[in-house]
């Protein structure tokens, strides 16, 4: 701006000189030099104007940069305040961690003391283990005895299986006989009714013969009733025997599973903790639970109800053969299921 003002002052001087030079003729040659200087000064003015515009644009850009930097400074101040807050929070956390460290150190001391006491107990248990190695040898001898008993039980199982097959054949024969007797009963009833109608017209002697035949049929009916009662009782008895065998097999399997799952050392440890012998511990394991006893009671009650139902059918009026057949078949199916369960249990135990 100062250069611009100087140039403008020089121009004014040049203009004044040119005006004065036009009046005098003697100064024609130097006026040409003045024009040239005027042109040079105008060029300089244009250049200075261009520079001024450039400087103005740079000033604007610098102002924008200054504003951006001020905004950046504000953001940084905000961040600094946040960092100061974080620092305060971290100081509080460090204090908490120091207090926790102290507590953990105290806990470490107590845990070290408990570790020492546990090491002492481990030494005592090691001494007990060395003493119990002798008892393990005796347990091995008992194991040998148990294997011998297992072979005996297997032989008994095969015998029981053969007997069951024979009894199944007998039951099938009895079922066929039952059907035959029912057919005979129906035939007897029809023949008796026909004979009664015919004999009502005949004499007293014919009536006596009919009474004899009726007595015979009554005897047969009583025989049939006793046969059915004996058959149902035998069926119920066989089913109860199978249930007891299944319970014994389950107990044997559970005891063996317990023995397999528990090592000999753990069994001895448990016995020493309970202050009992290993045989007593095995007997404790074999104790029957409350659910099993309730189940046996329920089964006994069902068998009792079944016998009472058959007794009612026998005492009821005909026709009752189909209901009787259904009841006996139901019990036979139950027996078959029990036989299959018993055989599968014995296979698993073997």
From TrEMBL:
Compositional bias annotation for Basic and acidic residues: 1-17
Record carries keyword Nuclease: no
Entries under InterPro entries matching the protein: CNTLN
GO cellular component: centriole; centrosome
Organism for this UniProt entry: Chunga burmeisteri (Black-legged seriema)
Residue ranges, annotated region (Disordered): 1-31
Highest taxon of source: Eukaryota
Coiled coil keyword on record: yes
Organism lineage: Eukaryota, Metazoa, Chordata, Craniata, Vertebrata
A single GO BP: centriole-centriole cohesion
Coiled-coil regions, chain positions: 31-191
Keywords, comma-separated and alphabetical: Coiled coil
Record-given protein name: CNTLN protein
GN (gene name): Cntln_0
